Amino acid sequence: MSTTQRKQREKQARREHILDAAAGLFAEKGFEAATMAQIARRAELAPGTLYIYFKSKDELYFALLEPQLLAHHQRNLQIAADEAAPADRAIAEVLLEAGRYYLEKPGMIHLLTSYHAQKYRRLLSAECFDRLRELMRANVDVLAALLRRGVEQGLFAPMDALATAIMIWNMAMGVVQGQEARVFRHKRGHGRAAIAAAVDLLMNGIKRRDAP
After folding, report:
1. Number of structural domains in the chain
2. Cβ-count burial 178-200 (b if 16+ within 10 Å, e if not)
3. Of 32, 55, 78, which residue constitutes the final position of a domain?
4. Which of 64, 76, 124, 136 could form a Cys-Cys staple with 129, CB 3.0–4.6 A?
5. pTM of the shown model
6. What is the CB neighbour count within 10 angstroms for residue 94?
């Protein structure tokens, strides 16, 4: 390995270490209360070193959420790509995939659920705010498209697909958040089983009684 390659790997490792420290503090204190000085201390770095990597909390928050939301959207598009597949199964897979991810990375669910459009419009740059909002809406849009497909397949009764998608996503994330808070009090696998049961209830609630 060349000196340049080694330095690049060290820089990337330090960047990831900073992001881990920031995620922990944002979860504990909230985005507004956490400071760059506290993040530097958590990461065991001088404040000046932190600012070499990230110029503001805005950049840190965006760097934490944007790749996760983008990865979810790409995965959701893959799940939804098979138009012949039953829509209810695709929706369940989208929700279960999100649940599995957030149980494995509990700090991320706090970041996602702490997002509040009116508050973060003031705290984040316009570019970061618009990008995060775009990605959050994109995942809901995939669910809405699957709900419309389910109506066409005769699985669901006619509905306001977008409003229903928002409700389903928020309910699913609420279940994940509740399980994350209890995950260490139960035997291994309990959180995933609880999320699977919640998804099953959600899907049974919107399916037509005479659906195939």
Report:
1. 2
2. ebbeebeeeeeeebbebbeebbe
3. 55
4. 124
5. 0.75
6. 23
